[in-house]
Design brief:
By secondary structure, the chain is α/β, with parallel strands linked by helices. It is about 25% helix and about 25% strand. Its cofactor is FAD; [4Fe-4S] cluster; siroheme.
């Protein structure tokens, strides 16, 4: 049974490597519309800021495909799916048969119908989604002094921080009343805005973008700013970055007659509800009414599907995932999970909150029915590991509630301290790697963070756990030194 994967991004490339770890023989072909080797999209903001090069965020080396007998079609886009013949047609003119087809096409950037974009984006206005987008923005930033980022969600904040890191004067224009309104409550959004101001980034909230201002430049339209509805007025800019959200890329699936709602509708085995020979994972699929926009659920889906397709675990099922948002950029450290918008007067919930806006700190924990159902940690995240474990397991909170906000209170230890961390504690949530797995890897001979990452993938997702992995490796080394 041949397997064909459409999409070689974070979900598709992960599935391919998971399959090869379980089965070395099954015929496997993967199409990637981008010519690049697969890369970590989460770390694009580091590339934008100049803190990392494109080569440092790669996920799978090109040579790996040849060594592992995978037919990788880099830079080749699938143009049509013929479900009756079980064949995919591609932009290079090929027709590739499949026994099982996996769609992992991800998402595409939303470019809203702003006046000034009718004939495409003018010079100096760019979307932020791919590595090519990132390179184009870096090129446009050279010689630019002022930038406007349209959109104050997670992607917009990452773009703004990257541009500020290159020395640009940055304004974020956001339609909602506070930043990252999907993940944060108003109090946290206000503290985040204040933190960004200290980093040279201004936020215009409740800002309705009415147009992109342009001028003629040698026959081409070049952006000169962003028009905002009164009372805001215009914001001048040499560079405009659109980070207005993403939409699941489902065009191929729709054209092939597959059931599509917001994403390709799949069951617990990640099968299309229309055609059992077609599966879907990642941002393009919809399971139990939910489309996941984070990497950890996509990688969990990849592991489940690899088990199913190779027979490693015929009973494997994707049952849903808890969504944890992490933002770790220079000067901004944020973890948000679950139900974060409850107020003190909400019946049936207990809310614990601490804010110190002058220091950029905001902490909130929401408990319902003796279970942690939501949390925000901004600025100081030492208890992130503890809260994530409580949230992941729907576990009861400790009797000393302050220990969830402040490490060391009521006997609570810093979440990232390896001394009291149990082996079952999850260190890398993107890859579901526990402290015990890191210890076992170290005992087998891995001695550096990079060697641990190669063996377990810990730290290769959002990168937020890398300091913790480093601490565990250092601690294990100290334990091995004879006294």
């Amino acid at each position: 049974m041949s397997i064909v994967v459409i999409g070689n991004g974070m979900a598709g490339s992960r599935l391919v490597t998971e399959i090869r770890e379980r089965d070395r023989e099954v015929p496997l072909t993967v199409f990637g519309a981008e010519p690049e080797q697969p890369y970590n999209r989460i770390l694009l903001s580091n590339v934008l800021a100049g803190a990392a090069g494109p080569e440092q965020i790669g996920l799978v080396d090109r040579a790996w495909y040849g060594r592992n007998g995978v037919d990788a079609r880099h830079g080749v886009e699938v143009t049509a799916i013929d479900r009756a013949a079980r064949v995919v047609h591609a932009s290079d003119g090929t027709a590739t048969p499949y026994g099982t087809l996996v769609i992992a096409t991800g998402s595409r950037s939303i470019v809203p119908p702003i006046p000034g974009t009718e004939d495409g984006l003018p010079e100096g206005a760019l979307a932020f989604r791919t590595l090519d987008d990132c390179r184009a923005i870096i090129g446009a930033a050279e010689g630019a002094r002022r930038a406007v980022v349209i959109g104050g969600g997670l992607l917009g904040i990452e773009a703004a921080r990257g541009l500020a890191g290159r020395g640009l004067d940055v304004t974020v224009a956001h339609l909602a009343g506070h930043l990252m309104e999907r993940q944060l409550d108003p109090g946290a959004g206000e503290v985040l805005a204040r933190t960004l101001r200290r980093l040279g980034i201004r936020a215009r909230l409740e800002a309705h973008v009415t147009s992109l201002r342009t001028r003629d430049d040698a026959g081409a339209r070049r952006v000169t700013g962003v028009g905002l509805a009164p009372p805001d007025g215009d914001v001048p800019a040499d560079l405009v970055v659109l980070a207005c959200g993403v939409r699941p890329e489902t065009g191929l699936a729709r054209a092939a007659g597959l059931a599509v709602d917001r994403g390709i509708v799949v069951d617990g085995a990640l099968r299309s509800v229309t055609d059992p020979a077609v599966r879907a994972i990642g941002e393009c699929c919809q399971h139990d009414g939910t489309v996941y926009g984070l990497v950890a659920p996509a990688w969990e889906q990849a592991a489940v599907l690899a088990d199913l397709l190779t027979g490693a675990d015929a009973g494997a099922r994707f049952t849903g995932a808890r969504q944890i948002t992490r933002l770790k950029a220079a000067g901004v450290d944020l973890v948000a999970m679950g139900e974060t918008h409850h107020g003190d007067d909400d019946p049936g919930v207990e809310v614990m909150r601490f804010a110190d806006a002058s220091r950029g700190t905001y902490k909130k924990v929401v408990v319902r029915g003796d279970r942690v159902v939501g949390a925000i940690l901004l600025g100081e995240t030492s208890t992130a590991g503890t809260l994530t474990r409580l949230y992941d397991r729907a576990a009861p909170p400790p009797a000393e509630r302050l220990g969830m906000l402040f490490a060391g209170v009521g006997g609570a230890q810093a979440a990232d301290s390896p001394v009291r961390m149990p082996d079952l504690a999850t260190v890398c949530h993107c890859n579901n790697v526990s402290k015990g797995q890191i210890r076992a890897c170290w005992e087998k001979g891995a001695r550096s963070v990079d060697e641990i990452a190669d063996a377990t993938r810990a730290g290769t997702g959002c990168g937020g756990c890398r300091d913790t992995v480093c601490g565990i490796v250092e601690w294990l080394g100290e334990q091995a030194v004879p006294s």
